[in-house]
Amino acid sequence: MSVNLLFKIAAVGILVSVLTQVLKHSGREEEAFLTSLAGLLLVLFWVIPYINELFVSVKELFSL
Question: Where are the domains of the chain?
């Protein structure tokens, strides 16, 4: 996993938290929820290939 991915995840987290707080204070609770959900899905799509690679390497390690 590269450091670049960690910086991307941190940037998305900061952006989503700021947007969520702004939307909550303006009375748009539903949009705030959807914003946080979209941020979570975006990060999951970035991380899923690395999780798959981890499972494949663990499977190869234990299948002798």
Answer: 3-62
